[in-house]
Amino acid sequence: MSVGRKTKKEKRNIGLGWRIVFGLIIGIVLGVLFFKNKMAITAMQNIGTMFIGLIQMIVLPIVVSSLTVGIAKMGDIRKLGRVGLKTLIYFEILSTIAIVLGMIAGNVFEPGAHVNVHNLQATNISSYLSTAKSASSGGIWSTVMDVVPTNFFASLADSKMLQVIVFSVFFGLGTAAIGQKGQIIIDVLDAVAEVMFKVTNWVMQLAPIGVGALIGATVAQMGLNSLKSLGYFIFVAYLTMIIFMIVVLGGVLKIYNVNILNLFKVLRDEMILAFTTASSEATLPRIVSKMEKFGVSQGIVSFVVPTGYSFNLDGSAIYQAIGALFMAQAYNIHLSVMQQLTLLVVLMITSKGMAGVPGASFVVLLATVSSIGVPAQGLAFIAGVDRLIDMGRTVVNVVGNSTASIVISKSEKDFDEKKNITYLAKLND
After folding, report:
1. What is the CATH classification number for the domain harbouring 297?
2. Within 13 Å and on the Cβ side, how many CA atoms surround 142?
């Protein structure tokens, strides 16, 4: 009888996803009420920053513990090498498809064809310019060399995800290599992961407040009028991202007998959270947990998802392609087929070479547009709405990396179908 009463009580509770939506609506209302109010904007930004900080506090401990345990249980360096190679090839193919789709959308819909740059309000992008200059000067070799950690604890302190992943992989392999002696390490890190997932659940109860504050600060700074002049550009970007998720990612999952709608249902709360915070890191702990419940093996999801947040940013790739063509069209610069192929190649290289750079999507655009003759300062006109588009591309990145973990797990025949069926059945109850 008590179980029945508990079930009824649970059914009366408002789900996290709905609470985040309510927080989003309240945040928009507060943003409109406190438009250009510096004190209110500062307060909302600080509350939102504290929430993101709580999430970031959890991310690296989960990556280290889950990935080390997953690799240790995998135990086969040849399998790890195969998984790593498959993952990188998959990332490169999907990112390229995303860029091509963005370029097709830019050519078909021409979002910048009817825009007069002289009527647009410019935004200060000096910080992006300096970041782009320093990032591009290092080149791709600088990025490759920066993957190797010299001090693991410094990597943790600086939140260098790729260095943490590399250390965790080696630590996991070493743990597996010493056999039974390594079991104590696996048990301890398993417990650490469980603790951090529990902390994640607690922190996520604050998500409606954090989300409301973040979106409120954005609206209060920009105002709803900022959507008017660049509304078509935003519409084209979002339409392309939706097409990519449903058609491209949906098609890839269909090959492996997974329905994209089921994935959307599983990731509903995380998609709302990603949209409102514009932070992939905010969703990483729950993505790892949910993909494990979905049937993906611990080792694969713990490796693929964190790595994907550096190398598989499909939403960002779409935005960069559309943004570059938007600016060319706004400046009445006609791009030949050869120039657009050059743009494709440059985007493929720069998007990988600047993984982990702050404001990477915008920085990549700055480093790319010069290759097609567009003035870098022209991007100051779309910088104002970058946050709004960032919300959408973060959702695509989250869905894209979740999809990648399923595909790699299925291709390795390391996907638990029974676990998947049970989880989906429970979700539909």
Report:
1. 1.10.3860.10
2. 12
